[in-house]
Amino acid sequence: MTEVPVGGAAAIAAPRPAVDRRRERKKAHWRRRRLVLLFMTPWILGFAVFFGYPLVMSAYLSFTHYDLLSPPRWIGLANYRYLFTTDQQIWPAVKNTLWMIGVAVPLQVLFAFGIATMLARAKAGAGFFRTIFYLPALAPPVAATLGFVYILNPANGPVNIALSHLGISGPLWFQSPDWAKPSLVLLGLWGVGNVMIIFLAAVLDVPKHLYESAELDGAGPLRRLRYVTLPTISPVILFAVITGVIQGLQYFTQAYVAANIASGQASQAGDTTSNLGYPEDSTLFYPVLLYQNGFRYFTMGYASAMAILLLAVSLVVTLLIIFNSRRFVHYGGMR
Amino acid sequence: MKRVAIAVAFAVLLAAGAIAGTVGSAGAGSKPTKITIWVGWSGSTHELKVFKGLVAAYDRQTPGVEVDVVGDINDDKIISAIRSGNVPDVVSSFASSNVGSYCSTGAWIDLGPLLKQSHIDASIFPAASRYYTQYKGVRCALPLLADDIGLYYNRTLFRKAGITHPPRTFSELTADAKKLTVKNPDGSLKIVGYDPAFAFYDDVPPKFTFYAPLFGARYTDSAGHSVLAKDPAWTKFLKWQKSLVDWYGYSKLQRFQASLGQEFSASNGFETGKLAMNVDGEWRVAFIANEHPELKYATAPMPVDDAHPGLYGAGYINGTIIGIPKGVKHEQEAWDLVRYLTTNTHFLAQFSNGIRNVPSTIASAKSKELKPDPNFATFIKIFANPHSATTPITAAGAGYQDLIQSFVVKWQAGHVSDLASGLANLDKQIDAQLAQATKGGKP
Hints:
heterodimer, A: mainly alpha, MetI-like fold, 2 domains, 14 helices, flat, disordered N terminus, B: alpha/beta, D-Maltodextrin-Binding Protein, domain 2, six-stranded mixed beta sheet, five-stranded mixed beta sheet
């Protein structure tokens, strides 16, 4: 009887134990993960340095008295108490911000969607019109605001001059507490190109056969819009609403510039204006008040508490929108 | 022996190197020390150019130092620099209201010991300037020229209206303003006699601060609590202001204001003859000379409350402050420059001539080098008036001014139904803001 030697070709050909295979798979898996991590490192570093660290520091500073110049002193919940119970500027600022979100965001979404729908149907000169409607989005916010304050100047602005030719006495626009926010909304609608272009892509992406089927079923234009277009582009609507709300919560530059210019105070560089919120605090949005506390009064601890509250509100609002969106947002079978 | 020779040669080389180094460093020492000063004056106006020219003269007089002037600086930039540790040698600011933060935190170093070392007594500066350059006894700043507020009036429009002299009381101002006002056929305002509106051409500090000393109004009691409701002068002042706004019509006045150019531009309403009278700082003299030399105008102290005629001649005082930030690299050179800029009579007179701000020492305000100009001389007299006053310096900086401004703007628009309770609530807010700013101890 010939003994089969231990090892040799037969041993090599024998299948490896299951434990080894698992180990190999695990190794390959970790190699892939390491590679992914390596590619993500720049983003992770950027996120940690420019977002994570400031976030943690803001949370810490919100419990301190911090004037930017001397070390922070722990004062517990005093900043939050002042914010919720004493500071009488907070609620006008919150109301202004909510007004902006409640009015500007739906209007911007509707306006962007409306233009996108029209542009999607345009046969001749589609490229030209797309460019024309997108162009305002390229204007820097400061320049755009300066332009609007000039155009809507109640005394000698072209809009009120045109209205006067029609026998209408135009409003005071940025000089009036009732009209300052609507003027800012108009500015926002004018620069809605970024949202419009996303809507346009979404509208053009709606499968033609869905419209054809709906037509065969006797659906008119409104029904096609209701049952084909809107459900198909609903993820884009959700995106536009969420980004609009977040931008509304952070609304600053246009309000800051409009208040300064409308009050006749394009000041010298060395000045810090006392007219934020002009006129009559109607443009005093939450971020403007936050800036005022942090960089005008140097109460950075209190400004941090305001920032943390803003973050919490943004998070809650976004989660509420996403949660409620499940009823009307469709992802083509995907969740 | 060989080792000894090498050691000797090495020592010789070292010595040579040391000598070369010494020579080198002596050479470097002969090079001027570069120091940097940050100022708020803007490159878009004549002011920065004038300042640079005068500092260049200092450079020439001081061979060991070369000064780099950087304009268009505000307090945000100053604080960022201090926080980063990368500071200029000298900083200046238009916002004296921030002196509370700078002095109490040590962000601007205490100049007291340096003044003492240089045998300079702070009493060379008038009382108001001494006040807004210190906080709780720590003098971390000095005044670099000063600003005060007076009345500008258009002589051509005065002559047309038959007015022979500027008003001395608010009653006279109101009567003159009405006489000088011209309306368009449609009832809109063409020329406004005097525009008392808040938040119009309102810079730092806001305009209500100009009126407070003219009505003898106090901001706080001896304990530092806000007393706007308790001091009847505030009510009187605000009622006068609103009565004149109402005479024009708030909405009409707003529309008129929108038709004027920006305050710091050649289309400023007074410079273009659309405002017959205006409350403004002494700097406007130079702006008019540069932008509208043809304008026939004159200046006078602001009128005062009819019940306090003795206050006539006084006004609101403030000014640019200058100091040395902590972490400065060349403290002695920085101090030498600060000392020169704030105490040298010749420099202050020349700088005052250039930008027509008020010379900030008692001696320089009397300097014979000052260019005679009756319009500017008004402001030197206001500066010297013992009733002239400034605003309180607090730990909350300009916070209380913003709260008052927010209130008075609503008041003039007719959106405050009960002035007394509104002012009482404002007092509460100001006290709460100050308490919040000092939470946990200093400042």
